[in-house]
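Standup notes, structure subgroup. Blocker cleared on the flavin mononucleotide input:
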Amino acid sequence: MFFLVYLSSAVTWFSSKELNDLLNTCRQRNLEAHITGMLLYKDGNFMQVLEGEESAVRKLLARINADLRHRGLVVIDSGHTAQREFAQWGMGFVDLQGDTHALPPEYGEFLGTSLTDSSFSQNPEHCHKLLRMFRHID
Ligand SMILES: Cc1cc2nc3c(=O)[nH]c(=O)nc-3n(C[C@H](O)[C@H](O)[C@H](O)COP(=O)(O)O)c2cc1C
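Run returned:
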């Protein structure tokens, strides 16, 4: 199983409707391509993990990279794992600007940290740790 984690910044902040539209596209298309993962959004920045067959993930990344709704996409980590970490999701999604009471207590560690902060961009492990916190959130 191949995985890839990237960070990017929205060109203009996404409204809830825009995020919903984006998610609908992601969920439908990722299901067809057997891609799972998690998308986080906070203060105009995205963090996404994609997992699936390597060629399918790379093809999707190229499409996402060409999307004019965001910019500055940087791949933070990629590699192979024995199994999917986000198997139950087509594409999980958490809006971290939302009600933080609904977020796991461990999230407190990253509460004040922007997704594009160097503590994420220079530490892939922090990205994995954050993404994993939301593995079981519906
Ligand atoms: C932050 C971000 C994450 C995205 N994630 C996905 C995704 O996981 N799957 C997907 O199919 N499209 C995703 N998209 C949307 C694609 O960029 C693209 O708009 C969509 O796949 C439709 O592609 P098409 O217009 O070439 O058909 C994402 C876009 C953004 C801005």
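Discussed briefly. Helices lie at 16-32, 54-65, 118-121, 124-133.
Next: hand off to the docking folks.
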